[in-house]
Amino acid sequence: MFDYIMQYQSEIWHAIGETFMMVGISIAAALVLGLPVGTLLYLCRKGQMYENRVLFAILNILVNVVRSFPFLLLVVFLIPFTRFVVGTAIGTLAASVPLSIMAIAYYSRLVEQSLLEVPKGVIEAASSMGASTLQMIVKFLYVEARSGLMLGLTTSTISFISYSTVMGIVGGGGIGDFAIRYGYQRFETEIMIFTIIIMLILVQAIQYTGSFMARVLDKR
Amino acid sequence: MISLHQVSKTFVTSNSRFQAVDAVSLDVGAGEIHGIIGSSGAGKSTLLRMINLLERPDEGTVIVDGEDLTSMTAKHLREARRSMGMIFQSFNLVNNRTVSGNVAIPLEMAGIPKKERSERVREYLDFVGIVDKADEYPSRLSGGQQQRVAIARALVSRPKVLLCDEPTSSLDPQTTIGILDVLKHINRTFGVTVVIVTHEMNVVTSMCTTVSVMENGSLIHTFKADKGNTISSEDLSRMTATQTGVKVGETYV
């Protein structure tokens, strides 16, 4: 049976590469844009430093809208945007666009939640020391919330992998697409099971690593 | 050094108003240790927090070291706050940074180079008697040790004023004495003006040179001890007895 699977070796590696690319881009988007959006959500919230109802409402609704879309419909809905950003709506890079949009919304919410757990007293201490907004965020908020931010990123990454599995619809490929096309549609059950095992190991490894890092980071 | 003029603060929620501080004026001279006592909800913490504008008064002016904080821009206010240290009942350390990491924060924010930073951090950790814990994380320390770290953090930027919000209220009596000794030592060594909010009478009698009594948002007494002395328990009980009937030595709650 193993020999049988091995004949697809290069396709499997290729699919894993596509998954890594889509998820990698999504993680980058989550960090580069989701983290600031989540921070802004936190800062603009009622009772926080920069309470701003309008900005909060806009961000809050945007994040909720993206997250409430059935993901496949979000992919389809974003096709014109994707075409505008990367020039095509088909392929792995194109598939990374809707995935990144979801990633930003998803992670920003988790960032907001982690930051809300930072004790108010620490923020007060920071203000009393004359911290600027940026210093407050970098030297206090992110430092105290870092293990939550790490756990949130772990949860997000696993969700992104799950979302990435349906990207066959726009030719994004990836391990999930491979499992569907070879395993399911061609009735090669062994292939399907094999790819599911790969995903399982991948997710376990990510969760284990993320939890471990969060534990190391947490000195509270 | 500190001059509050007719400051008021009302907290408004959707269904209630609470006047925490009602037209209070207070002057604290340079080098004094000023105690603010009163029962819970009397407005003493709010009054203290108005000195560095953590609580912005609705009315009135706050003048510290000749500068009007209430009319400053946000940027200017941040700079002014760097010459005022503050410590809290719950210590409020950054628990994910080591002891020396915590003390270094104000210096990092002021852009002081690394080498000088570590020297200053050591100097102040030594001063509060906790230099051997420099590389520990706060969660490994006792309450008294954590408060010492907080004191070092508040002092490292060499402030002229140290604001203390119930700094010993979560500590046992023995530890309290240790912390009060450190605060007295700071006052004598650096000439830092100390304002301390407390509900413990012995805090006042063991270190304060002047004291204010608050009740229902108003300042009902201010008293200055004879030169070189701290407030005596007789004076203190005379001032507080009229409202509460508690005796010195008891906790004033």
Automatic annotation (TrEMBL), chain A:
Keyword presence, Nucleotide-binding: yes
PANTHER family, sorted: ABC TRANSPORTER PERMEASE, D-METHIONINE TRANSPORT SYSTEM PERMEASE PROTEIN METI-RELATED
Domain ABC transmembrane type-1, chain residue ranges per copy: 16-210
GO biological process, one term: D-methionine transmembrane transport
One GO MF term attached to the UniProt entry: ATP binding
Membrane topology: Multi-pass membrane protein
Chief subcellular location: membrane
Family statement: Belongs to the binding-protein-dependent transport system permease family. CysTW subfamily.
SUPFAM superfamilies (alphabetical): MetI-like
Source organism: Paenibacillus glacialis
Protein name, UniProt field: Methionine ABC transporter ATP-binding protein
Keywords linked to the UniProt accession: ATP-binding, Cell membrane, Membrane, Nucleotide-binding, Transmembrane, Transmembrane helix, Transport
Listed transmembrane segments: 20-43, 55-79, 85-107, 149-171, 191-214
From TrEMBL, chain B:
UniProt domain ABC transporter: residue ranges: 2-241
Entries under InterPro entries matching the protein: AAA+_ATPase, ABC_transporter-like_ATP-bd, ABC_transporter-like_CS, MetN_ABC_transporter-like, P-loop_NTPase
Highest rank taxon of the organism: Bacteria
Keyword terms of this UniProt record: Amino-acid transport, ATP-binding, Cell membrane, Membrane, Nucleotide-binding, Translocase, Transport
GO cellular component: plasma membrane
UniProt keyword annotation of Transport present: yes
GO molecular function, one term: ATP hydrolysis activity
Signal peptide: none
The keyword Heme is annotated on this UniProt entry: no
BP terms from Gene Ontology: amino acid transport
Family (UniProt): Belongs to the ABC transporter superfamily.
Protein's UniProt name: ABC transporter domain-containing protein
Taxonomic source organism: Paenibacillus glacialis
Native organism taxonomy: Bacteria, Bacillati, Bacillota, Bacilli, Bacillales
